[in-house]
Amino acid sequence: MRLRWDKVWIVARKDLWEFRRNKFIIYTMLITPIIMAMLVPIGTFIPLKDVLVEANVGEEFDYDRVHTPFVFVTIDQNNIDMYHDLSSNMSFYQEYASIRNVSIRSVTFHNCIIVNTTIEEAIIWDSVISESVVTSGMITDSFILNSTVWHGRIAGSSGTNITTNDAYRTDSDLYDVHLPAELDMVAFYRTLMDSMLILFVMLPAILPTVLASYSFIGEKQNKSLEPLLATPTSDMELLLGKSLSVFIPTMTSTLVAFILFAVLVDYFTYSFFHEIMIPDARWIVAIVVISPLFCIMGIMINVLISSKVSDVRASQQIGSLVVLPIVALFIMSSMQLFALNMMMLLVLALFLVGLDGLVFWLSYKSFKREKILVEWR
Amino acid sequence: MITTKGLSRAFGPILAVNKLDLNIQDGQIFGLIGPNGAGKTTTIRMLTCLIEPTLGSAQLDGFDIRKEDDKYRIREITGLLPESPGLYETLSAYQNLEYYADLYDMDPTVKDLSIERYLRMLGIWDKSDVTCGTFSRGMKQKLAIVRALIHEPKYLLLDEPTASLDPASVATVREFISELKTKKRTIFINTHNLDEAERLCDRVGIFNKKLIAEGTPKELALKLWPRRVVIEVRNPNEWYAKNLSALSGVTFVEATGLRLMVDVDDPGVRAPEIVKVLVENGAEVSSVNEEVHNLEEVYLELIGGKS
Ligand SMILES: Nc1ncnc2c1ncn2[C@@H]1O[C@H](COP(=O)(O)OP(=O)(O)OP(=O)(O)O)[C@@H](O)[C@H]1O
Ligand SMILES: [Mg+2]
User: Which of A268, B163, B178, B231 lies 20 to 30 Å from A218 when distance is taken between CA atoms?
Assistant: First the structure.
C-alpha cells in the first residue's frame, strides 16, 4: 500500500476548494458554531444575569441596616412572632441566652444559643446558630449548623450544612455550603455543562454527515471518480484525503464553537465563581481527544454509507443516525445514570479508538477503486 | 505499445470482453468501434487499471496491468477521458487542471506553463477563473480531454469523446483531437461514430464482446469485398461485359444499365487495360471509378448484418 501525505493533501485541498463554493456547506459550518456556542450560553445566562450579579452584593453590605433600629423582643416563647416598634426606638440586646422557636427582627445577640429561629437584621457574635434562618445579618465568631443565611456577612465563623446566598464570607471555615435550591447555581451549572459537553462531542459526529455526503456521493454523482481513480493516487491516499477534507472544517468549526462558548460562559459566570470555569481538564479531553474521535467515526460511517447510496440527501438522512448512540449517551447522562467525569471520558476515548479502528478498516475495504466503479452505483 | 492477450472480463454471468487480442503501435490513433454494450468502456477501464481483467493480460509500454507495482507506472503514463467528463463544475477551469496536474506530480513551473498553454489552446485563458459549470458541453469535453493529457501522457484513452454533443461541438472536439494527433502519442478512442473513426484513426478494431476485425479502414474493406472498378458508358452494349471477363486479372463482371461493375485484382493496373478494351470496342466511357466502401458499410456488414 502506498501512502504519500502530499497526495493526501492535494486530494483534501480540492474538496476544500469545492466546499468553499458550496453555500449550503458554508452556512452549515458557520451556523452550527453560532447556535451551539452563542445561543445556549446567552439563552441560559441572560435570564439569570440578575442572580449572578447579586452574588456580589455581600461585598457592599450595608451595615447601617443591621445597626438600626433596635427593638424590644420577648424570647423563649413558642412560635410567637416578635416585632419591633420603630417608634419606641429601643434596641434589643441579649447576652447568654437561649433563643428558640421564635421569629424576631432587629436584634443583637452575644454568646447566645439560637435554635429554630427566624431572624432579620441582626448582629450575632460568639453564638451558636442551629436550624435557623438569618436574613441580613452580620455573624461573627460563631458556629453555624444546618442553617440558612441570606444576605449579610459571615466572619471568623465555622459551621456545616449552610445554605447561603449573597453572604460575604471572610476568615470562616464553613463546610457543606450550598445555595438555596432555587438558586443552586453550582448544580445548575454542572448539569448545563454536562449537556453542553455532550453536544460538543456530538457536533463533530454530525457535521461530517453534511460534508462527507458531498465529498463522496457528490463525486460519485458528478461521475468525477473515474478519471480521479485513473491517476497515480492510491486508494488510501484518496480515502485519507477525502476524510481530511471533512475533518478539517468539522474540527475547525467545533473548535471555533468551543472557544466562543468558553468565552461567553466565562464572561457570564465569572462574577459568580470568581474563576475561569472552562476550559478545565474535562473539557480539554472532550475537545482535543473525544471530539476528533467522534469526527473520525462520523466520517468513516459516511464513507460506508456512500458506498451503498447514490443520493446526497439519502446519505445525509442515514448518516444522521450516527448521532443516535450519542443521544443515548446524552440521555443517560442527564438521567444521572453515570457521571461524565474524567474517568468516564477516558473510557469513552478508549472505546472510540477501538470503534474508529473498526469503521476505518471497514470503509477502507469498501474504498477500492474496482469496487467503487463496479459496485458503487 | 499497447498489447493485450486474451484480455477478458466478466460481470457475473455477463461476459463483457472476450479474449481481446490487440497490438497498437506507438504514435498511432486506434479506434475501438462497437455497438452499445460491446465492452468498449470495460476495455478502457482495464487498460487504465481501473478494473481487473478476469482472464488474460495487457501491457502498456511493457508495464503489466495486473502487476500491483506496474499499475502506478501505467497510471502515470496514461490519461483517461471517461464516458462523462466529470469536471468539478463549481471549480474553475484552472483549478480542475491544477488538481490533476498535482495528482500527476507535475513540477510547479511546468504545471503552470502547461495549464496556460492548453487553456490558450482552447481559447479560454481569459476565463480560467470562471467556474467551468458555465461552459458549453463541447468546451467541457475539450477541457476534460486536456485534463487527461495535462501531464503529457504517452497513452491517451478517450471513451466516446464526441458522444452526446451537437454537430458543431462534435466538429470542434474532433478537430481538437486531430491536433493532438500530430504529437508523438498513442491515442485509443472508443466510439460508435464511424465517420469519426474513419477520419481520425490510423487503425480500427471492430468489436462486440470479441474483436471481429482489425486493421486500417481500407484494409477492412478489402477483406470484405473484392476491389471493384465501376465504369459508366454512354452506349451500353452486352458485348462489353463478355469482352472484359476474358481479360486477365478480372474475376467478375456485371452490367446494369449504363454501368459496368468489374472486380479486379489490382485496379491501378487493370483499369487502364479495361478502358482500352472498351474504347477499342466502341464504348463511350464517361467515368471510371474504383468502388469505395466506407467504414460504415464495413461496420454494418460485420456487425449490423448479424444482429
Ligand atoms: N459494473 C458493471 N456491472 C455489471 N455489468 C456491467 C458493469 N459494467 C458493464 N457491464 C456490462 O458489460 C457489458 C459491456 O459494458 P460496457 O460499458 O463496457 O459497454 P460499452 O461498449 O462501453 O457500451 P456503450 O457504448 O453503451 O458505452 C454490458 O453488457 C454491461 O451491461
Ligand atoms: Mg461505454
Answer: B163
Q: Residue written as cell 459496485? A: A375
Spacing of C-alpha B89 from chain mean position: 29
Tell how far the Cα of B1 is from the centroid of ligand 2, in angstroms.
Answer: 23
Q: Which atom of ligand 1 sits closest to the CA of residue A377? A: 1
Burial class of B74 by CB neighbour count within 10 A (0 to 12, 13 to 18, 19+): buried
Residues B75 and B155: their CA atoms lie apart, in Å, by 10
What are A222-234's pLDDT values in tens digits? 889 999 999 999 9
**Backbone dihedral angles phi then psi of residue A280, each to the nearest 5 degrees:** -110, 180
* Distance (Å, whole) CA A104 – CA A92: 10
Nearest atom in ligand 1 to B192's CA? 25
Cell matching residue A24: 449550503
Rounded average pLDDT over B180-192: 85
In this complex, the residue of B81, B85, B90 whose CB is nearest that of residue A22 is: B90
Give the pLDDT confidence of B2-22 residue by residue, as tens digits: 999 999 999 989 999 999 999
- Which residues have a Cβ under 8 Å from the Cβ of A227 and sit 6 or more positions away? B80, B81, B82, B86, B100, B144, B147, B148
Q: Which residues of B touch A224 (CB under 8 A)?
A: 86-88
Burial class for B141, CB neighbours closer than 10 Å (0-12, 13-18, 19+): buried
CA A279 from centroid of its chain's CA atoms? 10
Q: Name the amino acid, one letter, at A48.
A: L
Give me A334's grid cell: 442527564
- What's the pTM? 0.77
